[in-house]
Amino acid sequence: MVGALHSMTGFGAARREWAERAAAVEVRSLNNRYLKVVVRGDDPYPMYEAEIERVIRRWVRRGTITVHISVERRTTPVFRWPADTLRLHLLELRQICQSAGCPEAFPHLTSGLLLLPGLVTTTPYLGTPPPEEWTLVESTLEMALEQLCAMRQREGQAMAEDLLQIHQRLLTELARVRERLPRVQEDYQQRLRERVRQLLGEAQVPLEDAHLLREVALFAERSDVSEELARLQAHLDQFAELVHQGQEAGRKLEFLVQEMAREANTLGAKAADVTIARHVVEIKAQLEKARELVQNIE
To answer: Which pTM was predicted?
Structure first.
């Protein structure tokens, strides 16, 4: 198994019952540079975010985590009866029945008042949940987080394999650049000699090899990319090490990809060779693929 990387996207769900209560928890995660927890669902848990975040931090380090908590409490709800409003509705209903000439219908219609939306409400569940309910919710949340992390790890495994394939392609392109470099100076000297001969041929001015060699030496100094190649190789070695190591490597991998892109830009600017430029384009394309992947790694 390659590495232990974790993706930042995933889903987990769990349900448990205990002592006249049932808890259902769903957990979803998306990309984020930091950990952000959003709690939704039944009261009081949206207001219990700090305690829920402490549980989540035992499992997750980065990502936007959305938690939905539903609790079924098998207890009699506490109703609030708006006496004044209900009295006015009863009086109005009696008058309507009398004016319609059917006062006997009044008793049969009164029960329908209780079905009016918003007339009779239950007292919201506020404050700290009872210890036994929090224990149930916490254990259910742990089960959902376990599923979430298993899914994140499976996705991370696939991403690690993709990243190592990208790493191998980058090594191949880098080797081709190194192979091409000795020919760059030779080709430049050849082109320069031919150009000067064309310019001086008609004037019959002899070509001084010393002047030519001095120009070639200046070109070699300007186009020297040995430092860029060395840094790219060092970054690639560390990149592969982090992928195999796993464990919260996302930010470090993001930084390395950014540094490799910077070195690739300098390499393309200094090399002054069409063949090397094509290899640099491929290196940049592979780094862009890596950048998209590492942004979703914890």
So the answer is: 0.68
